[in-house]
Design a protein that fits this description.
This protein is of the alpha+beta class. The protein folds into three domains: about 60 residues, Beta-grasp domain (Ubiquitin-like (UB roll), Roll); about 160 residues, Threonyl-trna Synthetase, Chain A, domain 2 (Threonyl-tRNA Synthetase, Chain A, domain 2, 2-Layer Sandwich); about 325 residues, P-loop containing nucleotide triphosphate hydrolases (Rossmann fold), CATH 3.40.50.300. It has 15 helices and 23 strands. It has a five-stranded mixed beta sheet, covered by helices on one side. A hairpin with a 2-residue loop joins β1 and β2. The radius of gyration is 25 Å and the shape is globular.
Length: about 550
């Protein structure tokens, strides 16, 4: 048989015509600390069962990478779903919904008849361990789209049935795990044998599937409860359900039926009401003189702070917005990352002592000159911007370290009101495929960076891991310290962002490292019908990203 040559991990290897990537895994397994779970074939993520064909280069993906961790999570989720349907029986299950990522796990709920989740959870987990021992292969099967719609209708998976009615592609990849069939957005592991690390826990109205962290993929850590985060998430999800829009397919239905303008107005009104409620909670306590707003990148902190200030003004207060970024140390004193780049995310990048001195002075009624940070020269500047607080004045401070008391160590605790803001999408792709919060924020940032900073999508995607690293270290650990949480996600926003983001993503060079992520996001956006931005309020948080805001952003 004719031999061909492919470069695997930088080495030339001979292979025969029908060889698959998995045929080389054992040879390279010892060279990696963690399990090989997928591969890049000429830069494109693919499964280990894929034929090599005429590929030029193969690189392996392990479970300690971003992509590998997602593949692991999808595999464990499908394995769990198979176990749930096996334990309760298809006839008793109306729906299993994977709602969101909480702590180190995926939160889900089961709807149906005679669902004794607490009594059966250990049995479900035991079945999952059986599947691991059996090392069952994940088989990918190709269905014509209309046949996939029929299949999911017969399986009672109504969300998937609705999703694929709007599918433009003629075929759909469906996975078969020993008779359990499902659709998943993204690649799968080769088999269940490598999915050894997981556990199930009862949590509120459902369960949490706990999986390892990406940085330690061979160990399970304790699940960390986040009650405030859970409550704001469920509030948003319940609102989406009340609007009968909890999945992409349901949103597409609303767009196709001409209901989108009503949905936009209702969603914006809900945001305004929630901001007003937070303002009222602040105003009722006269000791609150400093509002601290923190949240991850592209959560809409700037627009939120201005809209909150307007609401505070209606209650007789005089808000003064102050960005913590103005207290950056001069660039020559900024800490650096391991690669030599400046680390603007760490607390040490802020002149914490000067910040506390100025804020303390303001609370005490002193006249204080505030700095402005010049991002071009990399230095703080003083240009006569002086403030002095009256009895009804209040500071509205925005910055990623706002919830960390180390930033405001000298300020009286009773004077502070902390707000955590993030974009927690109410939508899932379907009942088993959640939309990660980070995807919505990344798409927001790609659009804004191109419009305001001249960065192309390649630049934004390239710097996103460092942004996420800063969030993991300096924002998420403090979210439960907040007095209030605000969800800035808009149920319709991805249908609007689609028009702005797709041209930028199509421009990412296929030879760049960022191409894989760009293609993934394009596939994701392809699920949505597009919506014009024409009728969106000009004070909407979405305007911070697409432009046209009447607020200073």
């Amino acid at each position: 048989m004719e031999k061909k040559v492919v470069k695997i991990c930088g080495e030339n290897k001979n292979y025969e015509k029908d060889a698959r990537i998995r045929d080389f895994v054992d040879e390279y397994a010892d060279k990696f600390k963690y399990d090989i779970i997928a591969a890049y074939k000429d830069g494109k993520v693919c499964e280990l069962n894929k034929k090599i064909d005429d590929a030029k280069a193969i690189e392996f993906i392990t479970t300690d990478s971003v992509v590998g961790h997602k593949v692991y999570g999808r595999g464990v989720t499908m394995m769990m779903l198979k176990a749930i349907y096996s334990v309760f029986g298809n006839e008793n299950i109306e729906k299993v919904s994977i709602e969101a990522s909480i702590g180190r796990g995926y939160y889900g709920e089961i709807y149906g008849n005679n669902i004794d989740l607490a009594g059966k959870l250990s049995e479900i987990e035991a079945k999952m361990h059986e599947y691991v021992k059996e090392d069952i292969p994940f088989k990918k099967e190709h269905y014509p789209t209309d046949k996939a719609v029929e299949l999911f209708a017969s399986l009672g998976m109504k969300d998937k049935e609705k999703l694929f009615r709007y599918r433009r592609a003629s075929r759909v990849n469906i996975y078969n795990l020993d008779g359990y069939m499902d659709y998943f957005y993204g690649s799968m592991p080769p088999s269940t044998g490598m999915l050894k690390y997981f556990k199930l826990e009862i949590y509120n109205n459902g369960f949490v599937l706990v999986v390892p962290d990406m940085n330690a993929p061979d160990e399970l850590r304790e699940f960390k409860d986040s009650p405030k985060f859970y409550n704001i998430l469920m509030e948003s999800n319940n609102w989406g359900r009340s609007m009968k829009i909890d999945t992409v397919g349901a949103l597409n239905d609303a767009i196709a039926q001409g209901r989108i303008n009503d949905i936009i107005m209702i969603q914006e009104a809900l945001h305004e009401k929630r901001i007003g409620d937070i303002a009222a909670d602040i105003a009722k306590d006269k000791d609150k003189k400093i509002v601290l707003i923190a949240g991850p990148s592209s959560s809409g902190k700037t627009t939120f702070s201005h809209r909150l200030s307007i609401q505070l003004s209606t209650l007789g207060l005089s808000p003064h917005p102050i960005p913590v970024d103005n207290y950056f140390v001069n660039r020559d004193k900024t800490p650096r990352n391991e690669d030599g780049s400046f680390d603007y995310e760490c607390l040490e990048a802020i002149d914490v002592e000067q910040f506390n001195e100025d804020m303390t002075g303001l609370i005490q009624g002193k006249k204080v000159e505030l700095p402005t940070y010049n991002f071009i020269t990399g230095e703080r500047e003083y240009k006569g911007n002086s403030r002095q607080l009256g009895k009804d004045d209040i500071l509205v401070i925005e910055g990623i370290h706002g919830l960390n008391d180390k930033l405001s160590y000298s300020l009286p605790k009773d004077s502070k009101y902390k707000i955590y803001i993030s974009a927690l999408t109410q939508l899932n792709i379907d009942e088993h495929n959640r939309i990660p919060t980070t995807d919505g924020r990344l798409i927001r940032r790609i659009v804004r960076d191109a419009r305001t900073r001249g960065n192309d999508a390649t630049d934004t995607i390239a710097m996103w891991p460092s942004v996420r690293h800063g969030e993991d270290n300096y924002i998420f650990p403090f979210q439960e310290e907040a007095d209030a949480m605000f969800n800035s996600a808009l149920i319709y926003e991805l249908a609007v962002l689609k028009q702005y983001a797709e041209p930028l993503l199509f421009m990412v060079d296929r030879n760049s490292p960022e191409y894989v992520e760009a293609k993934r996001l394009l596939k994701f956006l392809d699920y949505f019908l597009g919506v014009s931005s024409e009728d969106i309020n000009h004070n909407s948080i979405l305007r911070e990203f697409i432009g046209g805001s009447i607020l200073p952003v």
